[in-house]
Specification:
Blueprint (H helix, E strand, L loop, with lengths): L5 E4 L2 E4 L11 H25 L3 H59 L2 H10 L32
Antiparallel strand pairs: 1-2
Length: about 160
């Protein structure tokens, strides 16, 4: 069966000079189609292989998940311990501040409640004490120390 091809030029239909082959493929086209089919099959096999997981890979992924979960649990635990310790430190600092304020208040109470004039009068009148003269004052120099040990009596002049 032969088919004829026609084309329209103006208002008349003419027959084409070159015959067109239908349903006939060249060897090159057949090879190209085979290569495409092989590529599709290889891609499908690769996709199927990628979807499958071996036991070793599953064990590896499970180990990774377990290690990650343990690390997260330990991190949260350490954060909790640190928060508890920080609260404890803040509590101790608050207690220290209260004790210092109480100590300062008691010291101020002691210093203001002591009547130095009364002590001076009792010492001078009842005990017979008086201020030292220039000849009674002896000055000592202490080198590199905050205190001095007395091994003998202070010499009198």
């Amino acid at each position: 069966m032969s088919s004829k091809n026609y084309y329209v030029s103006g208002n008349t239909v003419r027959e084409l000079d070159t015959p067109v082959r239908h349903n006939q493929r060249t060897r090159k086209e057949i090879e190209e189609a085979r290569r495409r089919k092989n590529r599709r099959n290889a891609a499908r096999r690769n996709r199927q292989r990628a979807m499958e997981m071996s036991r070793g890979y599953v064990v590896f992924l499970t180990a990774c998940v377990v290690i990650t979960a343990l690390t997260a649990v330990l991190f949260v635990r350490m954060q909790s311990q640190m928060t508890t310790r920080m609260k404890n430190v803040a509590n101790l600092e608050s207690q220290l501040a209260d004790l210092r304020a109480d100590n300062d208040a008691r010291y101020k109470n002691l210093t203001t409640s002591t009547d130095l004039e009364h002590i001076k009068k009792v010492a001078m009148k009842k005990l017979g004490m008086k201020y030292p003269t220039e000849k009674q004052v002896v000055y000592y120099t202490v080198e590199n120390s905050n205190f001095m040990d007395q091994y003998e009596d202070i010499p009198s002049k």
